[in-house]
Amino acid sequence: MEAPQNSPAAEVAEGAGPGTVTVNLAVESPEQMQALGRRLAGVLRPGDLVMLTGELGAGKTTLTRGLGEGLGVRGAVTSPTFVIARVHPALGDGPALVHVDAYRLGGGLDEMEDLDLDVSLPDSVVVVEWGDGKVEELADDRLRVLIDRAVGDTDDERRAVTLVGVGARWAGLRLAPWAPWVVDEDNGPGGA
Question: What is the pTM of this model?
Protein backbone atom coordinates (compact mmCIF):
# COMPACT_ATOMS: atom_id res chain seq x y z
CA MET A 1 0.00 0.00 0.00
CA GLU A 2 1.39 3.36 -0.96
CA ALA A 3 0.68 6.45 1.14
CA PRO A 4 -1.13 9.26 -0.68
CA GLN A 5 1.02 12.30 -1.46
CA ASN A 6 -0.91 14.61 0.90
CA SER A 7 -0.82 12.09 3.76
CA PRO A 8 0.91 12.37 7.14
CA ALA A 9 3.54 9.84 6.00
CA ALA A 10 4.27 11.89 2.89
CA GLU A 11 4.87 14.89 5.18
CA VAL A 12 7.45 12.86 7.11
CA ALA A 13 9.30 11.94 3.95
CA GLU A 14 9.58 15.65 3.17
CA GLY A 15 10.29 16.89 6.71
CA ALA A 16 12.44 14.19 8.34
CA GLY A 17 15.59 15.87 9.52
CA PRO A 18 18.73 14.90 11.39
CA GLY A 19 18.11 13.10 14.67
CA THR A 20 15.03 11.28 13.37
CA VAL A 21 14.52 7.55 12.91
CA THR A 22 11.69 6.28 10.72
CA VAL A 23 10.09 2.83 10.68
CA ASN A 24 7.37 1.92 8.15
CA LEU A 25 4.73 -0.62 9.14
CA ALA A 26 1.66 -2.17 7.50
CA VAL A 27 -1.39 -2.94 9.63
CA GLU A 28 -4.19 -5.04 8.15
CA SER A 29 -7.00 -4.73 10.73
CA PRO A 30 -8.17 -2.95 13.90
CA GLU A 31 -7.06 -6.02 15.87
CA GLN A 32 -3.55 -5.67 14.46
CA MET A 33 -3.59 -1.94 15.26
CA GLN A 34 -4.44 -2.74 18.87
CA ALA A 35 -1.72 -5.43 18.94
CA LEU A 36 0.75 -2.86 17.57
CA GLY A 37 -0.23 -0.58 20.46
CA ARG A 38 0.51 -3.38 22.94
CA ARG A 39 3.91 -3.95 21.30
CA LEU A 40 4.66 -0.21 21.31
CA ALA A 41 3.85 -0.07 25.03
CA GLY A 42 6.81 -2.37 25.58
CA VAL A 43 9.26 0.29 24.38
CA LEU A 44 7.63 3.23 26.18
CA ARG A 45 8.70 4.58 29.56
CA PRO A 46 7.70 7.43 31.87
CA GLY A 47 8.35 10.79 30.25
CA ASP A 48 7.62 9.66 26.70
CA LEU A 49 5.52 11.89 24.47
CA VAL A 50 3.69 10.12 21.65
CA MET A 51 1.96 12.20 18.98
CA LEU A 52 -0.68 10.47 16.84
CA THR A 53 -1.57 11.85 13.42
CA GLY A 54 -4.18 10.52 11.01
CA GLU A 55 -7.57 11.38 9.64
CA LEU A 56 -10.80 10.63 11.50
CA GLY A 57 -11.25 6.88 11.80
CA ALA A 58 -7.63 6.10 10.97
CA GLY A 59 -7.08 4.08 14.16
CA LYS A 60 -5.50 6.51 16.62
CA THR A 61 -7.76 5.56 19.52
CA THR A 62 -7.54 1.85 18.64
CA LEU A 63 -3.74 2.09 18.84
CA THR A 64 -4.02 3.93 22.15
CA ARG A 65 -6.36 1.23 23.49
CA GLY A 66 -3.59 -1.28 22.79
CA LEU A 67 -1.08 1.01 24.50
CA GLY A 68 -3.29 1.08 27.58
CA GLU A 69 -3.51 -2.72 27.61
CA GLY A 70 0.25 -3.03 27.19
CA LEU A 71 0.98 -0.50 29.92
CA GLY A 72 -1.51 -2.15 32.26
CA VAL A 73 -3.58 0.92 33.09
CA ARG A 74 -6.98 1.26 34.71
CA GLY A 75 -10.11 2.11 32.78
CA ALA A 76 -11.32 1.61 29.26
CA VAL A 77 -9.36 3.68 26.76
CA THR A 78 -11.87 5.57 24.66
CA SER A 79 -11.63 8.73 22.60
CA PRO A 80 -11.21 11.76 24.86
CA THR A 81 -12.71 14.09 22.23
CA PHE A 82 -15.34 15.62 24.51
CA VAL A 83 -13.25 15.77 27.68
CA ILE A 84 -9.97 16.68 25.91
CA ALA A 85 -7.84 14.51 28.23
CA ARG A 86 -8.18 11.32 30.27
CA VAL A 87 -5.73 9.98 32.81
CA HIS A 88 -5.51 6.20 33.15
CA PRO A 89 -3.56 5.33 36.33
CA ALA A 90 -1.24 2.34 36.28
CA LEU A 91 -2.54 -0.83 37.91
CA GLY A 92 1.02 -1.93 38.71
CA ASP A 93 4.48 -0.41 38.75
CA GLY A 94 4.33 1.10 35.26
CA PRO A 95 3.54 4.64 34.22
CA ALA A 96 0.08 6.16 33.95
CA LEU A 97 -1.30 6.87 30.48
CA VAL A 98 -2.45 10.41 29.75
CA HIS A 99 -4.57 10.35 26.58
CA VAL A 100 -5.26 13.75 25.00
CA ASP A 101 -7.35 14.67 21.98
CA ALA A 102 -6.24 18.11 20.77
CA TYR A 103 -8.62 18.14 17.80
CA ARG A 104 -10.85 20.89 19.22
CA LEU A 105 -7.94 22.96 20.49
CA GLY A 106 -7.01 25.62 17.98
CA GLY A 107 -4.01 27.20 19.66
CA GLY A 108 -0.55 25.88 20.27
CA LEU A 109 1.07 25.05 23.56
CA ASP A 110 -0.61 28.02 25.30
CA GLU A 111 -3.99 26.32 25.07
CA MET A 112 -2.48 22.99 26.08
CA GLU A 113 -0.94 24.49 29.24
CA ASP A 114 -4.33 24.40 30.95
CA LEU A 115 -4.08 20.60 30.82
CA ASP A 116 -0.79 20.63 32.82
CA LEU A 117 0.76 18.08 30.49
CA ASP A 118 4.23 19.32 31.39
CA VAL A 119 3.50 18.28 35.00
CA SER A 120 2.19 14.85 33.95
CA LEU A 121 4.91 14.07 31.44
CA PRO A 122 7.82 13.03 33.72
CA ASP A 123 5.78 10.29 35.44
CA SER A 124 3.47 9.24 32.60
CA VAL A 125 3.30 8.25 28.98
CA VAL A 126 1.47 11.12 27.29
CA VAL A 127 -0.33 10.30 24.03
CA VAL A 128 -1.71 13.24 22.07
CA GLU A 129 -4.03 12.77 19.11
CA TRP A 130 -3.99 15.70 16.67
CA GLY A 131 -0.99 17.19 18.50
CA ASP A 132 1.11 18.32 15.52
CA GLY A 133 1.94 22.00 15.86
CA LYS A 134 0.61 22.03 19.42
CA VAL A 135 2.75 19.93 21.78
CA GLU A 136 6.22 19.59 20.26
CA GLU A 137 7.60 22.02 22.82
CA LEU A 138 6.76 19.61 25.64
CA ALA A 139 9.70 17.33 24.83
CA ASP A 140 12.82 17.43 22.69
CA ASP A 141 12.50 13.66 22.25
CA ARG A 142 9.14 12.40 21.02
CA LEU A 143 7.59 9.67 18.96
CA ARG A 144 5.30 10.60 16.09
CA VAL A 145 2.93 7.91 14.86
CA LEU A 146 1.43 8.70 11.46
CA ILE A 147 -1.47 6.55 10.30
CA ASP A 148 -2.62 6.55 6.67
CA ARG A 149 -5.68 4.78 5.31
CA ALA A 150 -5.52 2.88 2.05
CA VAL A 151 -6.30 5.04 -0.97
CA GLY A 152 -9.65 4.39 -2.64
CA ASP A 153 -11.90 1.83 -0.95
CA THR A 154 -13.21 3.43 2.26
CA ASP A 155 -14.08 -0.01 3.70
CA ASP A 156 -10.44 -1.11 3.54
CA GLU A 157 -9.06 -1.62 7.05
CA ARG A 158 -5.41 -1.61 5.96
CA ARG A 159 -3.24 1.19 7.32
CA ALA A 160 0.28 2.39 6.62
CA VAL A 161 1.81 3.33 9.96
CA THR A 162 4.98 5.39 10.09
CA LEU A 163 6.86 5.66 13.39
CA VAL A 164 9.11 8.71 13.53
CA GLY A 165 11.40 8.93 16.51
CA VAL A 166 12.70 12.43 17.14
CA GLY A 167 15.74 12.87 19.38
CA ALA A 168 18.32 10.64 21.05
CA ARG A 169 15.70 8.71 23.04
CA TRP A 170 14.46 7.08 19.83
CA ALA A 171 17.84 6.27 18.22
CA GLY A 172 17.19 2.52 18.61
CA LEU A 173 13.61 2.59 17.31
CA ARG A 174 14.44 0.33 14.34
CA LEU A 175 15.79 -2.33 16.71
CA ALA A 176 12.43 -2.88 18.42
CA PRO A 177 10.55 -6.08 17.51
CA TRP A 178 8.02 -4.72 14.99
CA ALA A 179 7.31 -7.99 13.14
CA PRO A 180 4.90 -8.82 11.57
CA TRP A 181 4.22 -5.20 10.62
CA VAL A 182 7.59 -4.06 9.23
CA VAL A 183 7.53 -3.00 5.61
CA ASP A 184 10.73 -3.76 3.74
CA GLU A 185 10.73 -1.26 0.89
CA ASP A 186 11.89 -4.00 -1.51
CA ASN A 187 9.72 -6.91 -0.42
CA GLY A 188 6.55 -5.48 1.16
CA PRO A 189 5.20 -6.34 4.64
CA GLY A 190 7.40 -8.69 6.63
CA GLY A 191 10.52 -8.21 4.51
CA ALA A 192 12.25 -10.94 2.52
Answer: 0.81
